[in-house]
Every structure is written in C-alpha cells, then in structure tokens.
Amino acid sequence: MTQVHSQVRMVPARKGRAVRLTRGQSIKIINTHGHQVCDTWAFSADDPHEFMSMEHTRPTIEKIFPTKGDYLYSNRRRPILFFAEDTSPGIHDTIIAACDDYRYGLLGCAEYHDNCTDNLIAAMRAIHAPLPEAPQPLNLWMNIPVSPEGRISWCEPLSKPGDYVVLRAEMDVVVAMSACPQDILPINSGEPVEVHYEVLG
Fold first, then answer.
1. pLDDT in tens, 128-176
2. How many structural domains does the chain have?
3. Which of 24, 28, 96, 163 is the most exposed place for a label (fewest CB within 10 A)?
4. Distance between CA atoms of 134 and 31, rounded to whole angstroms?
C-alpha cells in the first residue's frame, strides 16, 4: 500500500496540538532539536471516556516504558496505538503525570506557568473534541531512571535532533501532544522548544 504523507506541522514550544486519526493511520512525532519532551495522549474518537492508559499498558507489556513493536492499551485494555517506529534510544516515561499549575506551585512558581494539562485541554477544545478527564500521558523522550530502591531521577533526554517515533492508530482516535513547558527541572535540557508531527497513511 502506498503511504500518503501529509504536511509536517509544529507543536509550538510550551503549547499543545491535537489531531484526528482513523484506524490504520499513523502519526510521526519528531523531536526536532533532540532535547524536548512531548507529552502524548490518545482518546477513542467514538467515546473519549476510553483513552490510552499507562497504568493499563505497563502490566500488559510487562515493562515500565514501551518500545518499538509494543501495543499501547486503553483503560478498557484494548490496543489503541501501536509503537511502529522509534529512531531514538527508546527512553520514554510512563510514570510521571502531566505537569499542571499545581505542580509548578509546588516547584516555587508564584504566578501561572504554562503546563501540559492546560495544553491538552486547549488542544482538544481547538478541534471540538470533548475531554472528560486528563489522564497520564506517554511522555515521549522523558528520561526518568528508576533505581533498584525505587527512587526516580529527573534527567535530560538521551534523544538527538531529528529522532522520531511513529504511532499507528488501532481504532479511530484523537491524538494530543504537548511540547512540555518544564523549565525548572532538567528534563528538557533547559529552555523548552517546539516539536513537529506528520500524519501518515
């Protein structure tokens, strides 16, 4: 089957975007500069109460982060995305919740800070997609090592400029992305920047 490529589009630094995919289509998410985390969600287009769930994916794939060849599962334990390609070292996070304004308050921010939860809400609103809740995302390229004692560390991504993943829709979905605005912890190697994406298929 010939693969049809659409236009490459941008998720601006500190902002979010959402896109609809039909079953069998894929989305290519590109770490343009190599050091940017991209929080990523998927919701069933038929029922947004069904969504990609990290707590349901982990026990099914028996790993704390997915790699190429893994299915990603919904909160109803059905495949919702398939991890088709990954040119990065394969370090992605499924443990950490999306940042929100409360999180930045705990980190010492006295004023509003851009955050992935609000980016998700705004991105879904922009395409008129209902959002019953903001589940934990798949944090692409986020490097959160877990020690044998169960301690976590906040580390810089191991990806390089131009690394990308391809996620294939296993049902009609809405995929949302946030170029994480975190600039206090080192997870984005400093100043947050944009990422890019392309719909394939």
1. 998 988 999 999 999 999 999 999 999 999 999 999 999 999 999 999 9
2. 1
3. 24
4. 23
